[in-house]
Design goal:
CATH superfamily: Carboxypeptidase-like, regulatory domain
Number of helices: 0
Low-confidence stretches: 1-15, 89-93
Shape: globular
CATH architecture: Sandwich
Number of domains: 1
Helix content: under 10%
Number of strands: 8
CATH class: Mainly Beta
Largest sheet: 4 strands, mixed
């Protein structure tokens, strides 16, 4: 299994029962299609725009795992804020970036 990745920026909206975001290639800044996304045991794949969306249990910690052949796997954890919800501030331009396996950043 590939090593965990560095997070450049994170676009994930964990509100009510929805968890969504975009996955991009770090080097090309292009969306990555067919990334396997697992959030709290629920699976999805990214579409042509790198977008994914899942239904999750509200007010729970989001444990996000991303896997794509040719890329280092990634783990991200996002916790609810003090009100038990997830902040929506300025998420429009944030993204999850994956590094290719041969990238210097994917090696520990």
């Amino acid at each position: 299994m590939s090593k965990f990745l560095f997070i450049a920026l994170l676009l994930s909206s964990c509100t009510s029962n929805q968890f969504s975001g975009y996955v991009y290639d770090y080097d090309t800044n292009k969306p990555i299609k067919d990334v396997k996304v697992n959030v709290n045991g629920v699976n999805s794949l990214t579409d042509n725009l790198g977008y994914f969306e899942l239904e999750i249990e509200s007010n729970s910690v989001c444990r996000l795992f991303l896997i794509k052949e040719g890329y280092a796997s990634k783990k991200v954890i996002r916790k609810p804020d003090s009100l038990g919800t997830f902040s929506k501030r300025s998420l429009k331009n944030n993204r999850i970036y994956l590094y290719k396996n041969e990238s210097d950043f994917s090696k520990e």
